[in-house]
């Protein structure tokens, strides 16, 4: 029998141990089970975002999540172009699990949220959700693992320490008015 390995220390604070569960849409997932966002952007649902049934097409939720992650990184000082040019770093989605709970429709105003859940040296696990304006319950939630790679050769690389520190600080202070 081996001794238990202590959990690694992480700048993500109390959310560092495991990603939040993605309860089933049939479950009773209330706001108490929903982590507070550390970053949020507004998104309007346009005609191009919907399918023939008039609801947001399932793949377009990934586009909304990508926009929120990009703006979150930019707010942390890690714009994709700057990171690529100055540090040869790019971020890629390594893994994603999406829970489609309720639909959004044409003209809905959404808030797309990002929260750091777990930080590793070369990857982060993020919790993302989209919700209607004024409603704390997610329509769609996802656990997303992003990884840092060297842009020049596609090999894994470490996320800079300054970025870990800024992301951890962001996770500790949810945005106002969301």
Give me the number of helical elements.
3
How much is the average pLDDT? 83
Radius of gyration: 17 Å
Helical percentage: 10-25%
Q: Looking across the biggest beta sheet, what order are the strands in?
A: 1-3-4-5-2
General shape: globular
Order of helices and strands: EHHEEEEH
> What share of the residues does DSSP label as strand, in percent?
25-35%
Number of strands: 5
Sheet having the most strands: 5 strands, antiparallel
Query: How far is the N terminus from the C terminus?
Result: 48 Å
> Which blocks of ≥5 consecutive residues have pLDDT under 50?
1-32
Structural class: alpha+beta
Notes on the protein architecture:
By secondary structure, the chain is an alpha+beta fold. Helices cover 20% and strands 28% of the residues. A 5-stranded antiparallel β-sheet has the order 1-3-4-5-2.
Task: Show the helix and strand layout.
Layout: E1 39-44, H1 60-75, H2 80-87, E2 89-100, E3 109-119, E4 123-132, E5 140-150, H3 161-172
Antiparallel strand pairs: 1-3, 2-5, 3-4, 4-5
């Amino acid at each position: 029998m081996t001794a238990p390995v202590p959990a690694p220390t992480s700048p993500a604070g109390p959310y560092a141990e495991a990603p939040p569960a993605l309860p089933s849409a049939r479950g009773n997932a209330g706001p108490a089970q929903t982590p507070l966002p550390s970053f949020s952007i507004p998104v309007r649902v346009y005609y191009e975002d919907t399918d023939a049934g008039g609801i947001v097409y399932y793949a377009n939720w990934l586009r909304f999540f990508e926009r929120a992650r990009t703006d979150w990184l930019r707010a942390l000082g890690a714009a994709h172009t700057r990171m690529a040019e100055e540090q040869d770093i790019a971020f890629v989605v390594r893994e994603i699990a999406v829970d489609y709970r309720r639909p959004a429709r044409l003209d809905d105003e959404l808030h797309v949220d990002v929260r750091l859940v777990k930080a590793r040296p070369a990857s982060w696990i993020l919790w993302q959700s989209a919700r209607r304006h004024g409603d704390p319950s997610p329509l769609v939630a996802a656990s997303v693992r992003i990884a840092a790679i060297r842009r020049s050769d596609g090999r894994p690389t470490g996320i800079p320490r300054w970025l870990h520190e800024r992301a951890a600080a962001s996770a500790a202070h949810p945005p106002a008015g969301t």
